[in-house]
Amino acid sequence: MKSYLSLIPISAKVHKRQNRMTLLCIIFSVFMVTAVFSMAEMGAKMEQARLLKKHGNLSFQDLFSSIMGQTLLLISAVLFFLILIAGVLMISSSINSSVAQRTKFFGMMRCIGMSKQQIIRFVRLEALNWCKTAVPIGIVLGIVTSWGLCAALRLLVSEEFSHIPLFGISIIGIVSGMIVGVVTVLIAASSPAKRAAKVSPVTAVSGNSENTNIRHAVKSRSFKIETALGIHHAISVKKNLILMTSSFALSIILFLSFSVFIEFISYLIPQSSNTSDINIFSSDSSNSVDSKLLDTVSGMEGVERVFGRRSNFDIPAEIKKENVLSSTIDLISYDKFDLDCLRKDQQLRKGSDISKVYGNSHYVLATWDKDSPLEIGDKIRVGNEEFEIAGLLKYDPFSSDGNTNGKITVITSGETFAHLTGITDYSLIMIQTTKDATDENVTAIRNAVGEKYTFSDKREHRTTSTYLAFLFFVYGFLAIITLVTVLNIMNSISMSVSARIKQYGAMRAVGMDEHQLTKMIAAEAFTYAVSGGIVGCVAGLLLSKLLYDHLITSHFNYATWSIPILPIIIIILFVFIAAIAAVYVPSKRIRNMAITDTINEL
User: Fold this and answer.
1) What is the DSSP string of 145-163?
2) Which residues contact 550 (CB under 8 A, 6 or more apart)?
3) In the chain, which end has fewer C-beta atoms inside a 10 angstrom radius, N or C?
């Protein structure tokens, strides 16, 4: 043997099974970063092609000032940061457990003259040795995944992604994956390497570096002895407790953070059930579109739904409320389908009762923002009629920024509008086409409308496919990150049990049965889960609020953050289910081993 470093490939072969999870963590980290940045670059190239086609020339400022460009940059940067943290925590936990199981090996190396610095170097180079296999596999998986996603977007989603490259190779994605793989491993190996170097030769040769130097009995007044021992095992080694707590907390933080991204995409690319594909309106914005046209168009081929709106602006009104500056209102009618969509899309504030607005009634809706003085139950008098506000919209859909800007807009049913104003024709007719509608169908509708009204074909402005693609993108990577976190939890608990295998053998030898051992392992796992749940919820809510304010409220000031109760319940249940699953494998392993095997296990 020329050098002690020659032991690295030998150790890798001997501990192949123990290192499997560490390799998987590195592979997943590299894979996710490569796929994220590859998809971001492919999306940037698609946006570049679109802007070139639209404007004829293009600068970086044009690309990064577009909604698509900004969204891709933001999501990629945050995902990169989160994946880096996840990778460091997972790999560090795995290496720590591996070091704990090989204390006798490091003790022998110390006894034959290896210095602390050599042990640190050995552990770090051993970790880098895994990169030779894991990084290429992760990069290949990331590239292939990006090809599959690009193909799905281009062939299955819609023409919005018709310019996305199918088999593009992203240099940025490959380099980013390599950097993350190496940097993550180096950071993760730092603490375990120092821990291995600090173990004294005498303690190390004994084969157990765990905290066996107990100065007092474990307190078990509140719990049975096996439960108390499990809790003690979890909290006795502070570094392991921090790493395990972080692993549990990370999944909660990721889940709550990505919930904000889902809302961000919903605000950035809003999806409304009443979004039209074709608009027909009068050139002077008056209520001059014949109501009979609605019946004519509704029966034509390629038409799924037709509905209309009437409008009357700057109507004198008396609002029975103090501090209301405006003495006029804008009045807009919604057909039944329009009103149904408000409920379906959850655009109404809490306490609204839209059921009162249908038909010919004296109830209306009103737009709202943070500066609006209106409240549910306020009264508005128009002419000789008095109306009560039965509900408030969360924002003003008729303004470009969602703010009312001091303007009061009242929404009525079509029947109430006709009763109040006597107007039965429309200012706007909106058409939703079927999925298989052809250009010939649209041409036929245009001919039926004639030249009297303005005809606007908005089919090219559809964003449903883009919205679904972003949701698929975010949820997909969230699922992968969560899967890796769960695997890490299961592996870490299993390796923690392996590091104490001699203790468990001694406990079985003095009479502890299999059920008690399982309860002890479960108590250890659930101690990690509870501490991780508390840390994860606190940190996750703080990060959720921070992200929400920065991404959403700063651009859509009518948006308000609220505690995400349902996501919290879902992810906490998920974490505790993962803890239950993590207990099964190591407890089964101990049950299947003879007592003498557990005592002699190294």
Assistant:
1) HHHHHHHHIIIII-GGGTT
2) none
3) N
